[in-house]
## 1
Amino acid sequence: MKHIVIAIDGPAASGKGTLARRLAEAFNLPYLDTGLLYRVVGRRVLDHGGDPSDVALASEQARGLGRLDLERGDLRTPEVDRAASAVASIPAVRAALLDFQRSFALHAGAVLDGRDIGTIVFPEADVKLYITASLTVRAARRFAERRALGAEVTLEAVQADLAARDEADRTRAAAPLRPAEDAHRIDTSALDANHAFAAAADWVNRALAKP
Ligand code: CDP
Ligand code: CDP
């Protein structure tokens, strides 16, 4: 099998991670959830009692990031959602995380999901997918996930948080969330994980068939 790079971007809870894991398994590629990198940096700033928009502190935490940090269990809370998005708007933080993301795909190719994979991290990716779903569908999905983790949240609060984070991610100056020109769009509002996978696998197979 060719060592290809599959770049998957899109807003929060659109189904990027679910799809990325399925593609990685099916095409035997390593998988990197790049959102985790920003979540770890946000978490580390909070642990230091700092403000996630503190440029010096957030950049220092991004530069000191290690592989083991990605295995922390407390990275999927509303507090970390907001901290991740705040540190992600700092250019020095993004720059510090770029090498790690690029070298991840060096040996065997990779599937990476995030916000700027097809635009900034791997503009030459073999396959670029832009995953979307309506805000209400995404909020319902994230609400169900958080409730399953035992969190006491309301659907309204989850939806408001998602909308605010999407807006911040789309309008920031540094690597804003947007589809690459050559990205294939998949709207998962009415697609379950199997159907989303089938649509994506089709694009990957076409890329693999190219000489
Ligand atoms: O899982 P969800 O889609 O809610 O978020 P995530 O992928 O874990 O990303 C958390 C935050 O990190 C996002 O809201 C972005 O602000 C930031 N992020 C980014 O800026 N660039 C990436 N490649 C990945 C995440
Ligand atoms: O990575 P991202 O934040 O974009 O989303 P995800 O973690 O892949 O998916 C969020 C939730 O939606 C998970 O609980 C998935 O099982 C669910 N999902 C779905 O219901 N239908 C899909 N086509 C994809 C994901």
## 2
Amino acid sequence: FADDYFVSNRRFPKNFKFGTASAAYQIEGGWDADGKGENIWDRSTHLYPEKNSYQNGDIACDSYNKWEEDVELLKGMGVNTYRFSIAWSRVLPTGFVNSSNPAGIAYYKNLIAALKANNIEPLVTMHHWDIPTVLEDLGGFTNPEMQEWFVDYARFLFEIYGDDVKEWITFNEPKQTCEHGYGTGALAPNIVSPGIKDYICGHNLIIAHGKAYRMYEQEFKNKQNGRVTMVIDSNWFEPASDIPEDVEAAERNLLFTYGWFGHPVNFGDYPEIMKERIASRSQLEGFESSRLPTFTEEEKQIINGTVDYMCVNIYTSSMASASAEPVIKPLNPDRDSDIGTNVFQPDDWEPTVTSWFKVVPWGSRKLVKWISDTYGHPEIMVTENGYHDNGTVIHDIDTRGRYHKLYLSNLQDALYKDGVNLTGYMAWALTDDFEWQYGYNIQLGFYQVNFTDPERPRRPKDSSEYYRHVVTTGCLVPEEECID
Ligand code: PNW
């Protein structure tokens, strides 16, 4: 992007939700502390260290012990919202509701109370990739029973925390959970079954979400008055040219990515193009029925309209162009062939340390505009956005600081110029953390953590100052240049 891009000097609305986001496995540590059960990330990092950069989250940022310090950092930063996740196996060690763990329950009770005492609203994710291994051994998201196990877990959370938590997220990034947990195998539980188990996972997860939403509606909504939603991640896909085939290729990628989950929870079914293409390729591959499962009429009713507002995690963008129909490989289906387009990132887009991650601020504006247009102008929250480096850079104003500035400026244009009802922005992340398969080699925090020091000290990076300025003033530029 051009360096002369004009950074907006307008102020974000007074009630805009600014915060940071995190996930239990990435920060807590205490993997077997005080009765916590094993989850699929504990198992993956212990049994398959080679799949996880030979590192693990056994201690991570030690936020299980240092949560008060983290709340102090949040308070110092001036955020009004904190997004975090509950480790299912910390509160329910086996995953089933008959196994509850008082120490785990107390941990989140205390955290929530401390946040609220500091006027920081908790935005709570129920599942950020870490299901208890007992449930995984029963098939995890490939077992339809998972729908009911999740509903039971959700009810347990609403009962315990629902008087204090008013903003609930059922699932974080089901695309990652299913595509990489059960398709490519890059993420725990590291199951390799592309084009089959990834879709089965998505199917059960969507119904689990829908059932949990309905249960909240029926059993809690009128006394607790909270909101329930799902977080969906997607790249923006830019057509490689303006020929109709490339425009269609880009749209098709958005539908197979954001729409895979966004359509069912808004409209009650998968996008037509997904159903058509997977069914027709499945048939050519010799399957009796589509590899993409079908919702029953009853399931459609359950899932239709089950997000109180929409969420998106944004990191980067890609270009898409039309391609010849990928060859039929009956024994090796995969999601990319189901999409059937070329996807790439041009060499002249600004790189980061991560191969798939180029800095594309304008893509964030287009993505939230697409979500707004596609789903009837709902309220939208950006629930993650952040910049990868190798974690050694303290003076990160021109990298991470600039990244947040440019993405926020584009998002603000979506709000003020495109009429997108954007109400919040959660930066990933407050502190450096365990970055899944990359271990500690990639980092996104406003605070550096020394992972070789048993005390896990936090040290501010320069970007923390910038983000403090943004959230406390609502301005992306110096306050004196900001207009109201
Ligand atoms: C997010 N992609 O995952 C996760 O929600 C976080 O837990 C994670 O730490 C964060 O990204 C930072 O990397 C993603 O391939 C993983 O586009 C991959 C993609 C996007 C998001």
